[in-house]
Amino acid sequence: MIIARTLEELTAARATLGDVGFVPTMGALHAGHLKLVEAAREAGLTPVASIFVNPTQFGPKEDFARYPRDEAGDIAKLEAAGCKLVWMPGVEEMYPADAATSIHVAGPSQRWEGATRPGHFNGVATVVAKLFGQIRPQAAFFGEKDWQQVQVVRRMVADLLLPVRIVPVPTVREADGLALSSRNAYLSPEERRAAPKLHAALQHAVKYLQQGKEPAAILHHTRMELAAAGMVPDYVALVQAQTLEPIAALQTPARLIAAAKLGHVRLLDNLPIG
Ligand code: AMP
């Protein structure tokens, strides 16, 4: 596996690879990230990953400085997963002092994560567009765990006619249902025991929604369930799956999305309504 840390190294390495399936990450890799690498390989593409903890997608009070980092471990995991190239730019390489462009995707970015974390999706869209320009992948693989992020990236790619196919990959979970996340490392043992209740509550809600129960009542009940598990729900919403607009009655495609604080950790999860 080639490790590129400068654009010059990246360009030279990229020229030796054929059709690329790209997996952007912020490192601290777990089985969820590696599933994306596997999906790229299974699509018949050469897997290429990036590790870049992108400062512009963190708010001023967020965890940029203490975001988990494990460069040696990440490289070993990517290599074992069959990744052929890892792009690890520095902040100066990604954001030269004279850079003057950023990307704002309206529409699907506006609510939920976008409302709670102002500027977050501008940071995501801009860095993803830059990574696409650097790597020039045929396809890029994103986790459904960050459902809204996938819809923002899809909207950007469609609107800017970027020549890349966006492939969503289902969420990888622990045996007890907790969605894998680099930030799970922040959970205390007690919080870790409570954390799967987010997934469980969403599963209950999906079951009731499918039985035709009234969405507003189900969403209210789900918030109560999260509070009873010691979480502070940020949002629990039934949304149109692509636009992320809230819907009052079940329609397809719909998605149940939620975020809740457990101690200092913000947990995210979502499920399709089959
Ligand atoms: P991150 O390093 O958190 O920015 O995530 C990099 C990519 O991995 C994103 O596309 C995430 O949605 C995806 N990802 C993170 N956790 C999971 C998971 N549990 N299952 C599947 N994909 C994931």
The class by helix and strand makeup works out as: alpha/beta
Small molecules bound:
adenosine monophosphate
Stretches with pLDDT under 50, minimum 5 residues: none
Q: Number of helical segments?
A: 10
Strand order of the largest sheet: 1-4-3-2-5-6
Q: Which percent range fits the helix content?
A: 25-40%
Strand content: 15-25%
Radius of gyration in whole Å, from Cα?
Answer: 19 Å
Helices and strands, with pairings:
Elements: E1 2-4, H1 7-14, E2 20-25, H2 31-42, E3 46-51, H3 71-80, E4 85-87, H4 91-94, H5 113-116, H6 120-135, E5 139-143, H7 147-159, E6 165-169, H8 189-194, H9 197-210, H10 215-228, E7 232-240, E8 254-262, E9 265-272
The structure holds adenosine monophosphate.
Q: How would you summarize this macromolecular structure in one to three sentences?
A:
The chain folds into two domains: 2-169, Rossmann fold, CATH 3.40.50; 182-273, Pantoate--beta-alanine Ligase, Chain: A,domain 2, CATH 3.30.1300.10. Helices cover 37% and strands 20% of the residues.
Explain what the structure shows.
The protein is an alpha/beta fold and 274 residues long. The chain has two domains: 2-169, 3-Layer(aba) Sandwich (Rossmann fold), CATH 3.40.50.620; 182-273, Pantoate--beta-alanine Ligase, Chain: A,domain 2 (2-Layer Sandwich), CATH 3.30.1300. The protein is built from ten helices and nine strands. The chain has helices at 7-14, 31-42, 71-80, 91-94, 113-116, 120-135, 147-159, 189-194, 197-210, 215-228, and strands at 2-4, 20-25, 46-51, 85-87, 139-143, 165-169, 232-240, 254-262, 265-272. A six-stranded parallel sheet has the order 1-4-3-2-5-6, with helices on both faces. The longest helix has 16 residues, at 120-135. The chain is globular and about 55 Å long. The termini are far apart. The chain binds adenosine monophosphate. Residues 25-26, 32-33, 35-36, 142-143, 145-146, 169, 171-172, 179-182 line the site of adenosine monophosphate.
